[in-house]
Design goal:
It contains nine helices and three strands, in the order αααβααααβααβ. With 225 residues, it is of the alpha+beta class. The protein has a three-stranded antiparallel beta sheet. α1 packs antiparallel against α2 and α2 packs across α3. It is elongated.
């Protein structure tokens, strides 16, 4: 009997570890796909935050076991409800999406002239190579905006960063993760997640804009309530 315990216990722990690792890998892949859907929606909508958030929610639906809704808005609403319940259970939001580019400084450097006159902030999008060579190379050193540190091409690239929280199924794993949390973590969201015993999944995507990006306020979190 003692020999059986000695052999079975490590095998059981290895099985639990493989199970949790498999769940983590599946959720990482699903979160990456949902982020891709958000970026694709953003590139064709002028980087509209609501369009990106709804596309992310629709893309995440299969991973949360939600389906069958023919109406995309209804599907996204069901995902938001599931995410709200998750947040209530764990005391922290399930996901955060930050828009890293274009950012306010990008519009400071590369707003289209006609958009400025109209009182809006819209990136110079058409004929980027021509405008880079004939306008911005003479206006800025190496064509790099002084406020954003970007070129016109970089400003017209949508960059999103996802932080997704995954709850391990086994209670012992969460207790272990709490012990591994670091108080020196600078990101409050990540620090709170690790203190709660949650796995942090980070994904980032960059995609060229397919429409002129418009400024939609200074909030960086697309999923903020």
């Amino acid at each position: 009997m003692a020999e059986f315990v000695v052999v079975a216990l490590p095998l059981l722990l290895a099985g639990f570890g493989a199970f949790e690792t498999g769940r983590w890998l599946l959720m990482r892949q699903a979160a990456g796909y949902a982020l891709f859907e958000a970026a694709r929606a953003g590139t064709v909508s002028g980087a509209e935050p609501a369009a990106m958030a709804q596309a992310f929610e629709r893309g995440l639906a299969p991973a949360l076991g939600i389906g069958g809704a023919a109406d995309p808005a209804a599907l996204a609403s069901a995902v938001r409800a599931r995410m709200a319940r998750w947040a209530t259970t764990h005391g922290i939001r399930m996901a955060r999406i930050e828009q890293l580019s274009p950012r306010p400084a990008s519009f400071d450097d590369f707003s289209a002239d006609d958009a400025r006159r109209a009182g809006t902030r819209e990136l110079d999008y058409d004929y980027q190579r021509l405008h880079h060579d004939t306008v911005y190379l003479s206006r800025y050193r190496n064509g790099m905006g002084p406020r954003s540190g970007q070129t016109l091409f970089e400003a017209n690239t949508l960059v999103l960063r996802l932080t997704y929280l995954h709850a391990p199924y086994l209670p012992g794993i969460r207790a272990l993760l709490r012990q591994l949390s670091s108080p020196s973590e600078r990101d409050d969201y990540v620090r709170q997640a690790r203190a709660a015993g949650l796995l942090v999944i980070r994904r980032e995507i960059a995609m060229p804009m397919q429409s002129a990006a418009r400024e939609h306020g200074k909030t960086r979190d697309l999923l903020a309530p």
